[in-house]
Model the fold of this input.
Amino acid sequence: MQHSIEDIEYAEYLFDKFYGIGSSENGGVTRLGYTEVEDEMHDTFKLLGDEKGYGNYTDEVGNTYLYSKDCDMDEEYYLIASHLDSVIEGGRYDGVAGIITGLLIMNWAKRDGLSLPIRIGAMRCEESSNFGRSTIGSGLITGEVYKHDIGDAVNKQGESLREVFKRKGYSLQPPRIQGVKEYIELHIEQGKVLEEYGDRIGIVQTIAGPRRFNIHIHGNAEHSGATPMGMRTDALCAAAEIILEIEEIGKSESIYQSVATVGTVSNKPNALNVIPGEVQLGVDMRGIDPASLDRMEARLKAVCKRVCEKRKLKYFREKTSDIPPIGMSMELQQKLLRAAKELKIPHRSMISGAGHDAMSFAHICDTAMVFIPCAKGISHNKKEFTTIESICDGAQVIYQYLKEEAR
Done:
């Protein structure tokens, strides 16, 4: 469908307002959760609402909301939300596209004189890049069981989440969010399915469940020149074997749409002339089939035991996250698919391999996700890109559904 010049210009204006915040020299952005940069993103969000005469408020964990001042604050509402933080050296569309969507929809409702009970939410710390925990803001306010006891999670500066919350005046035990009738989130796909099939809209069926682990491997740090090869307990060599085995685990379970990744490696003492004595691996396993996830976890445990025993190393495995696959509302899926069909926008049903704030809301209200294409499937990268037209496509699908509901 064609979008008006006014809509394109307004969406571009919104995108430009966020564009420079957290920019790095190489072209990406770093907007880590619960940092001053993320604060600036939320302040900008509030200012954009001020320009349109919207009200705003911040909840007990720092999430920010915009609302029309003529709405009944006691009425159940549609929460259109996403996040404003990023990974380290990430892209500018992840999360932000969903916030722009909410602002577009609220602007259209105001223009069309529709009294839709809508609020736009900007969730805090959706990415795991700063504290090693994802969807913190949304998880805390929905009482998500997987967000219990996260106060000891430590950020890149060595400060615990509990310390950060105390400094900012937030609460690790906030009351559960009330009044949400439905939660709807637009997001870039972060994959290439839509692009490959030539579709412009994806309606998410299920969000893959992540299981994450830290693998701690302990050898002996010794002089690299004076220690014979047969007398070494090299933690990094053991880690290399384990990394390759984890890749094979993911490949063998890929027929079930599961994946396995070693995303972080911490090597100590990390000196050229010292045999690595201690290594920590961050392992991310995801899938929509619980049995497949169980098999991958069992194989991970067996691989660590076998490799470390063979090399006479000590190790321990720490599970940091275990969230099951989460289905989206079937009824909402059908209504959004119908809206896309009415607008004559090519669309498809699909799964999400990445986690999102929608996971936190699925157990308290009807929840849906709308995907739009991103170029070559690239995300969490400075090359991440989608078009303003694609954002408008997704926003129009959601707005079409909301208008139908209001009739």
Remarks:
- The first helix runs from residue 5 to 19.
- The longest strand covers residues 209-218.
